[in-house]
Amino acid sequence: MTTSAGTIAPATSQPSVPSSGTTVLNVVRSEWTKLWSVRSTRWTLLATFVVSVGFTTLFAWGQTANWSQIDAQERANFDATANSLGGLYFGQLAIAVLGALVITAEYSTGGIRTTLTAVPQRLRVLLAKGLTFGVVALVVGVATSFAAFSIGQAFFATKGVEAHLGDPGVLRAVIGGGLYILGCGMLGFAVGSLLRHSAGAITTAVGLLFVLPLLSNLLPGDWGRTIREYFFSNAGGQITTVRQDPNLLAPWNGYLVFTLEWLVILIAGAVLFERRDA
């Protein structure tokens, strides 16, 4: 049987990408490749490590060199663990920058259109980016924290005030240093997903982590104290302490507050990521 010349066979709709190719695992693999294909990833992670350990070395050297000038009360309250992790407050800036670039770099190059064409499920893309970067940030953060702790204690041992991983709260604080680096990176990632602009996201993340917490110390009264207590790095940084400041949150409570803060930003960014044009 032949068909008439005027009959047009109905077109069969074919998806551009098989659904089996856009599973979370496959998207994570793709994001992993993209993350390591950019040289700035390695340099930024190296900067996180070098800056954190470098500033810890300077702080520890300065404290031990001037130990005789520290009064007895300060010596009695000296937190060798927290002081050896002080460099993380500078390394946090590098990991926050990388967190922002993980998502904003694709917007600046236009590559995000290709990504979303290949994987139309936008939240799956965001999840894969966050998981990939989060694992890398955590590994680098923990390694950096342990390295900084070891170098700091080498200095403090010369004065007999070093801490040991077996001491109460010390292991938690050192691992907490890695968790803090993770949180700072995820804050950068969250802001990047919200703003989609590299310069704006980096500036905002640095402001939230470094500049505004310092300025919050100038706020007067009870409301100023509350803001200082709950503000981003002021809250999250308590996870690195052994001797708790009674005016600030407890270590795990502070880290939980910090996590909730960047999660709120990330959720807002995810909603906009789903709705806005690429």
Report on this model:
It is a single chain. By secondary structure, the chain is mainly α. The protein has one domain. Helices cover 72% and strands 0% of the residues. The chain is built from 12 helices and no strands. The chain is globular and about 65 Å long. It starts with 23 loop residues before the first helix and ends with a helix.
Number of domains: 1
Distance between the terminal alpha carbons, to the nearest Å?
A: 49 Å
- The average pLDDT score comes to 88
Bin the strand percentage.
under 5%
Radius of gyration: 24 Å
Short characterization:
The chain is mainly α and 278 residues long. It has one domain (28-275). It contains twelve helices and no strands.
Topology:
Layout: H1 24-36, H2 39-65, H3 72-76, H4 80-84, H5 88-109, H6 111-118, H7 122-156, H8 170-195, H9 198-215, H10 221-230, H11 232-236, H12 251-275
Helix pairs in contact: 1-7, 2-5, 2-7, 5-7, 5-8, 5-9, 7-8, 8-9, 8-12
Short descriptors:
0% strand, mainly alpha, 278 residues, disordered N terminus
